[in-house]
Backbone:
């Protein structure tokens, strides 16, 4: 519509803006890509080399920084070779990280690892230094040596080595499951905070029992299918207000929507064009954390379950991950969670209704599989009981406590089925925040 208006005013064809879904997909690709930033490093290195050659005659360098043509060629050639070797070294580390993550952690974690800024900075510095040194090498002549450029190339090598040490330090420490759990929890809390800000603005409110309004109903099918990665709530609400209708998103973020399945239900006599609606919803091959805090919880549970598998048999890691799961649940428990949420316009008229996840959904996701796979390991039921007891004592809204008590009863049943001996059963029913060794007490 804006493009048509601009064309009428100027008489020229104005390209239509990219749909929100396409922009979302491009942003996700750019953030997760490992080649875009290094490519920019190559381009920047070449440009800086040209600038260094141009400045070489204007800037007078000290005598000890002057080089003969043979010395400059040897130095720059060594730098070019070293940068190629260091790039191979970083790629090797990346392969090891992939093997570690897919073997003992969760493959879903890889989406966060791809986005590490330090890793991209290291790659960009290496490629930039390579490009800079190679360009300097080409500019050396019998009667001209870019002394300033050779010196800057040496400084770039020093910066590259420092970044490499920082890179090694981070990934040596961050490959531990507990460090990855902390990283995933922070990402999930950022998404929760963004949703809380939208709710605090007054535009978004819960609607546990939505009623379909009267009037014509139009169903908009999903054009391609895929995992629902996100949507533009304000734009969808503005679109519904423009056409004076109510738009209902039929799937929550994180669902896989098959091709042809109903994606929207539009209540109103003049529904928006289907392409405008579907252009405000991003579909992809897998879930993302950007608008889906449940996916962060899913990754945490996967790490704990993988640690409890017979191949790994590391219940202490599961207990450490439960620490972060408990903190995440405390954050979620203080929110106004609902099965549906409604976005209203400035007049208070409902314009967009989207499905959400209730407290029960998050709680079941957090503890069910860990309870089922870990009930036979004494640490896990003790830590789970401490987690659930802590939720009961945390002052959460009363409506959340029934689900917590239900999970406690399921934990009791799982322990009784796994521990027929009364003494071992009593030990497994004891709450302990450290799993074993954190102190015992009477059962709550």
Residues:
């Amino acid at each position: 519509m804006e493009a048509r208006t601009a064309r009428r005013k100027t008489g020229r064809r104005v390209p239509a803006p990219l749909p929100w879904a396409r922009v979302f997909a491009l942003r996700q690709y750019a953030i997760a890509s490992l080649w875009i930033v290094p490519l920019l490093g190559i381009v920047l290195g070449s440009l800086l080399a040209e600038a260094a050659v141009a400045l070489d005659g204007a800037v007078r360098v000290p005598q000890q920084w002057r080089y003969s043509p043979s010395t400059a060629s040897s130095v720059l050639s060594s730098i070019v070779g070293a940068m190629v070797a260091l790039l191979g070294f970083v790629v090797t580390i990346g392969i090891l990280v992939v093997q570690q993550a897919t073997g003992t952690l969760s493959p879903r974690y890889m989406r966060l690892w791809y986005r590490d800024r330090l890793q991209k900075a290291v790659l960009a510095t290496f490629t930039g230094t390579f490009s800079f040194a190679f360009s300097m090498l080409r500019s050396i002549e019998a009667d001209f040596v870019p002394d300033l450029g050779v010196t800057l190339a040496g400084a770039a090598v020093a910066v590259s080595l420092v970044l490499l040490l920082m890179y090694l330090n981070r990934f040596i420490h961050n490959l531990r499951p507990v460090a990855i759990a902390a990283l995933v929890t922070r990402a999930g809390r950022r998404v929760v905070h963004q949703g809380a800000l939208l709710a605090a603005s007054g535009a978004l409110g819960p609607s546990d029992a939505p009623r379909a309004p009267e009037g014509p109903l139009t169903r908009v099918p999903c054009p391609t299918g895929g995992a629902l990665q996100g949507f533009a709530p304000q734009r969808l609400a503005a679109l519904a207000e423009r056409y004076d209708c109510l738009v209902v998103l039929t799937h929550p973020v994180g669902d896989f929507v098959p091709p042809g399945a109903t994606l929207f239900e539009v209540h109103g006599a003049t529904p928006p064009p289907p392409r405008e609606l579907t252009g405000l919803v991003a579909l992809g091959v897998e879930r993302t954390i950007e608008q889906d805090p449940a996916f962060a919880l899913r990754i945490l549970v996967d790490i704990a379950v993988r640690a409890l598998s017979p191949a790994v048999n590391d219940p202490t890691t599961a207990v450490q991950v439960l620490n972060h799961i408990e903190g995440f649940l405390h954050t979620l428990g203080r929110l106004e969670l609902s099965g549906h949420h409604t976005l209203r316009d400035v007049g208070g008229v409902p314009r967009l209704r989207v499905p959400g996840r209730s407290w029960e959904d998050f709680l079941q996701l957090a503890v069910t599989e860990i309870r089922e796979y870990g009930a036979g390991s004494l640490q896990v039921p003790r830590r789970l009981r401490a987690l659930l007891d802590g939720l009961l004592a945390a002052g959460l809204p009363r409506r959340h406590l029934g689900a917590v008590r239900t999970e406690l009863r399921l934990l009791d049943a799982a322990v009784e089925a796994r521990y027929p001996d009364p003494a071992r059963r009593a030990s497994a029913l004891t709450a302990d925040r450290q799993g074993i060794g954190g102190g015992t007490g009477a059962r709550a």
Summary: The chain has three domains: 32-174, 187-193+291-341+357-429, 197-284. The domain at 197-284 is CATH 3.90.1170.30 (Aldehyde Oxidoreductase; domain 3).
